[in-house]
Amino acid sequence: MEREKVELTTVQGTMLATLYARALDSRARHSILGDHTADEVVRRVDHDWSKTGTQAPWDAATLALRGRELDRWTGEFLIAHPGEVTVLHLACGLDTRVHRLDPPPSVRWVDVDFPDVIELRRRLLPEPGGNYRMLGASVTEEGWLEEVPGDRPVVVVAEGLTMYLHEEEGRQLIQRICGHFPGGELLFDCFSERLVRLAKKLSWMAMGIAPRAVLESWHWGIDDPRELEGWQDGLAFVDDLYVVDVPDLGRLPAAARIGLRLGAHLPGGRDSGRLLRYRF
């Protein structure tokens, strides 16, 4: 089998780390996501996976738990809206969420990312059935949203996106989405302002957390989710979930559990990462 050579920018390359984490999780004895499609893609890609920084079992499990909770929230929306709805998956990368959830034909699913990422998806990932399409664009650009019909309720999922946006870009994106669709939910993960500031100060060290270019690309942190409610009439904060409170943390290796518990007791540690859910 001929393997696919992948060349992306450092920041876009973070999607390879996430993909590899889900592949590793799928190989575990007690897999969290069971994302075998991700594993199939990894085996088709010609890449030095040691450079992703995702090697330890707890890296894979932690990322899989985060993805599973966003899957769960998305699935709850689809169950609550059994008619025709739209799923707008922003900064989709090589995520196989559409394959994991396998939505019915009544669901319009749109995966959005940079054109080169979308082209890579076309080469590597199997084409889902149903009402599915991919859209190549930067989510911060104006105009791309007009290519998505705004005639249905929407659930917007964005994993690993907000920290790379500037706050004003995030505000404009949320306002455009809320103005385009009749209603729906916004689901995304975020970092705290403290973590974003710390990453920038210590990016020269890289700290083993992420490549320097990635740390320097973090801009937006969210401390008070209710502040976003003032950005758009009808936008309401519904729920949040701290990363350290994600269900089934007991499935992580002991070293990871201890590390998370210790980190949660450091100043700002518990608030450093969480998932947010809004309704409009």
Number of discrete helical segments: 9
Q: What percentage of the residues does DSSP assign to strands (E)?
A: 15-25%
Here the CATH topology equals Rossmann fold
Q: What's the level 1 CATH class?
A: Alpha Beta
Overall radius of gyration: 18 Å
Low-pLDDT residue spans: 204-209
Biggest β-sheet: count, sense, barrel? 7 strands, mixed
User: What is the CATH architecture assignment?
Assistant: 3-Layer(aba) Sandwich
Distance between the termini: 47 Å
Write down the overall mean pLDDT.
87
Strand order of the largest sheet: 5-4-3-6-7-9-8
Tally of extended strands? 9
- Derived from helix and strand composition plus strand pairing, the structural class reads alpha/beta
Question: How many distinct folded domains?
Answer: 1
Q: What is the helix content?
A: 25-40%
| Name given to the CATH homologous superfamily | Vaccinia Virus protein VP39
Categorize the overall geometry. Answer: globular
Order of helices and strands: EHHEHEHEHEEHEHHEHE
Condensed summary:
One of its GO terms (molecular function) is methyltransferase activity. The protein is α/β, with parallel strands linked by helices and 280 residues long.
Architecture overview:
- By secondary structure, this protein is of the alpha/beta class.
- It has a single domain, classed as Vaccinia Virus protein VP39 (Rossmann fold), CATH 3.40.50.
- The chain is built from nine helices and nine strands.
- The strands form two sheets. Strands 5-4-3-6-7-9-8 form a seven-stranded mixed sheet.
- α1 packs across α2 and α1 (14-27) packs across α3 (57-80).
- The protein starts with a strand and ends with a strand.
- 37% of the residues are buried.
